[in-house]
Design goal:
Radius of gyration: 19 Å
Order of helices and strands: HHHHHH
Mean pLDDT: 87
Largest sheet: none
Number of helices: 6
Shape: elongated
Distance between the termini: 9 Å
Structural class: mainly alpha
Number of strands: 0
Length: 197
């Protein structure tokens, strides 16, 4: 954030850019684990040991198999982190104006993180749906030819609103998750002597 000049007084787009870059890089690195997690969770047959999942994936699709759905996963992470960090920072400004609380006040951080969780749900739900569809393809065949094909087929089959299916449970997950993450970050920043977000 500071490297890009996306601090407290930076324009909106810089805050989103800083969040997007960190999310995208982390997601690319972690994609193989996400694919394996999705396969393990959606397996309807007898439980398959992790090493068997890895071996089957590598034999049937090579290294590329571990990166299926990477476009959706990276886009999702970019949108998620951009929304979380950008909306959190901007919300802190509005909360301090409306309440008179300080930016470092835990009430400000808590309220702003809760608001960020709502906007994360709005922006990330479609990416979650597409990512899950892409990663949940059988290891021995491809149902979708990439991100755009998956979006088109999903919307054609289930309608546009299906991209936000499960909105309330997703928000129920994101709001406390964002709150805990952002309060922890604020605490660690203060503990280490860095400026607050």
């Amino acid at each position: 954030r500071d490297f890009l000049g996306a601090g407290k007084d930076a324009p909106f787009y810089m805050k989103f850019l800083a969040g997007a870059i960190t999310g995208g890089v982390g997601s690319f690195i972690g994609n193989p684990f996400d694919v394996l997690k999705t396969l393990a969770q959606t397996n309807k047959e007898k439980a398959v040991p992790l090493m068997s999942l890895v071996s089957n994936m590598y034999q049937q699709q090579g290294i590329a198999g571990f990166y299926r759905g990477v476009e959706a996963n990276v886009l999702r992470a970019c949108v998620l982190n951009a929304t979380k960090m950008g909306c959190y920072d901007i919300s802190k400004g509005y909360v301090t104006e409306l309440t008179g609380w300080e930016r470092k006040d835990i009430r400000t951080s808590f309220s702003s993180a809760f608001i960020a969780g709502f906007f994360m749900t709005c922006t990330v739900s479609p990416f979650d749906r597409i990512r899950t569809n892409l990663m949940n393809q059988p290891t021995d065949k491809k149902i979708y030819d990439g991100f755009v094909d998956c979006v088109v087929k999903t919307v054609k089959a289930d309608g546009v609103a299906s991209l936000w299916r499960g909105f309330i449970p997703i928000w129920a997950r994101f709001a406390p998750q964002a709150t805990l993450q952002l309060l922890s970050i604020e605490f660690l920043y203060g503990f280490c002597g860095f400026k607050s977000i």
